[in-house]
Amino acid sequence: MAESNRFLCEACGQSYPLDTREWRCGCGGLLELDSWPAFDTECIDPDQPGLWRYRSLLPLDPAWEPVSLGEGNTPLLPVTWGDLSCLVKLESLAPTGSFKDRGAAILVTALRGLGIERVVEDSSGNAGASLAAYAASAGISCDICVPDTAAGPKIAQMTAYGAEVIQIRGKRGYAALAAWAAAAHGAYYASHVYSPFFLAGTETVAYEIWEQLQHAAPAAVVMPVGNGTILLGAYRGFSRLWQAGLIDRVPRIFGVQAAACAPIYGAFDQGRDSIEPVTCEATVAGGIAITQPARGHQILAAVRHSGGAILAVQEEIIGQTRIELAHRGFHVENTSAVAFAVLGRLAETFLQPDEGPVVVLLTGHGLKS
Q1: Which of 23, 82, 170, 177 makes an SS bond possible with 189, Cβ 3.0 to 4.6 Å?
Q2: pLDDT of residue 3
Q3: Are 134 and 127 in contact (CB under 8 A)?
Q4: Please, which residues bridge with residue 80 across strands?
């Protein structure tokens, strides 16, 4: 796979080898993987743990040794929320406490296979913690640039894994600029936003839900959205299942933002195909406080194609919802709570009676907050 696969720019078609240090095309376009295995249920290996049961369905060289901490196979539990019966996918129970472990496992497996020895990433918390853990497991040196507003427990988690944490004063975007500068001086930019290997890992959440529902698709999937890596992963994963004839529809995808920082909601609500940067107010949902998501146009296209929507929720409701979830036994960070905060609105406006199961992703553990 490594010899035949390559990156292609989605905008201009320029190709790059897998070991390139370019993390986006010279034209500014996003890079995508050119070659994927055909989706064949015979390739699912029930003897492999967690998401590695899908290894043969992912764009990984067979010679690359997996870098694993036990990610995947998170529970799917029934919950009644108001008048809505739904299923909650507990991504908060991943090894480092967030869904980011799906992407980090696949990304770091590829990086070690390609001989990468030092990586840098920018993150407000969860992605950096996940990359730090998997890089440590792989023996790869790791630097994480974080905004100085990042949560203390997340910084402590990155540091515990041995990463060099560099706190950047000012806007969240300044941390990205610092990471790009480090990448220009030799480090590999292991971005959860830009790397197609990371997105390949997040697709596995769709495969798991499909198997947990006895080879069926839910009617809808609801999740927080900032940079959109779990949203795009779920959409792409269910799309592959549909293209393989294994489900009769792609679930409707609903992404939720904090109203204090909602550029994707604004673009969706105004019918635009691209994101315009916004000035964010302070929000407790810091994990999705992204002013201009790089994959915004892909997020909008995925949500519209699925028949879903982007919604926004006010600060006071986010906090109330997090407390109510904790009183149900689900201790999650505020960023996760935004998905449950809109369920009443979804049931009233978007969902039809007896349409089918609704899956809500709880993306990050409350111990990180």
Answers
A1: 23
A2: 52
A3: no
A4: 85
Asked if 162 contacts 141 with a C-beta cutoff of 8 angstroms, the reply is no
pTM greater than 0.90 (yes/no): yes
Contact between 4 and 12 (Cβ < 8 Å):
no
Radius of gyration of the chain from Cα atoms? 19
Q: How many whole angstroms separate alpha carbon 92 and alpha carbon 250?
A: 24
Rounded to 5 degrees, what angle do the CA atoms 255, 228, 2 make?
Answer: 140
* Nearest CA-CA partner of 183 in 247, 119, 90: 119
The values of phi and psi at residue 145, to 5°, are -95, 120
Q: How far apart are CA 54 and CA 36, in angstroms?
A: 12
Token duo for residue 73: 């196979």
3-class secondary-structure state, position 150:
coil
Residue 337 CA to residue 289 CA, distance in Å, equals: 14
CB 224 within 8 A of CB 288: yes
Cβ–Cβ < 8 Å for 202, 270? no
Q: What is the pLDDT of residue 2?
A: 45
Please answer whether residues 298 and 333 qualify as being in contact, where contact means their C-beta atoms are separated by less than 8 angstroms. no
What is the Cα–Cα distance from 150 to 132, expressed in whole angstroms? 15
Q: Quick check: 355 and 85 in contact, CB under 8 A?
A: no
Calculated CA dihedral for residues 33, 38, 41, 45, nearest 10 degrees: -50
Residue with tokens 């933002």: 257
Intra-chain end-to-end CA distance of the chain, in Å: 40
Report the C-alpha gap between 87 and 31 in whole angstroms: 34
Give me the helix-helix angle, 126-138 and 152-160, nearest 10°.
10
Residues 103-124: pLDDT tens digits? 999 999 999 999 999 999 999 8
pLDDT tens, residue by residue, 145-182: 999 888 899 999 999 999 999 999 988 889 999 999 99
Query: With b meaning 16 or more CB within 10 Å and e meaning fewer, what string describes 192-219?
Result: bbbbbbbbbbbbbbbbbbbbbbeeebbe
Q: Which residues of the chain have pLDDT under 70?
A: 1-3
Q: Which residues of 59-91 are buried (b: 16+ CB within 10 A; e: fewer)?
A: bbeeebebbbbebbbbebeebebeebebbbbbb
